[in-house]
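Exam revision sheet. Question 4 asks you to relate a sequence to its structure. Input first:
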Amino acid sequence: MINRPEPLDKEKHVANTKSIMCKTDTDGHIEYANEYFVELAGYDEGEIMGESLDIISHPETPKLISKYIWEQINKKHKVYAIIKYLSKSGHFYWLQLKFDYKVSEVTREVINIYLYASVPSRNAILELEKFYKKLTKIETESNLEIAKKYFNGYLENSNLTYDSFIEKYLQT
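Answer key, structure tokens:
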């Protein structure tokens, strides 16, 4: 088990010309990560294989967003997200993600999750950073359920679903 680093207020550059991908089991434990994914995370391959994706989750990424992503995957839905990550050095970086999955031909159950990443726009990062800090604060000061109610209220008030909310920020 890897000890999580202390977050620094320093951003790590992400090249928008490189492929970023990893494969996990259904519990989010990394089974494969391409070279650039490993480089961004800052761990050696031997350190990161078998670890949960949580090892690179930044504390300012709302747990609510991660929970939603896993709920959608378990329903066999593809899902998109923009997430703030934490490297081994403590530097942060943002990724725009597409989560996909592989289903067993026999059981029809999800057997692997695939994460494909790219660089989000600077505008998306600036807007989501503020919103994610607000959600994280609610999670910390109240709880996850209150944060979920707040987020759902925000979506309803804005006449959005999660998908239409995140689509506003996706780089195509």
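Marking note for examiners. Strands lie at 20-24, 30-33, 79-86, 92-103, 110-118.
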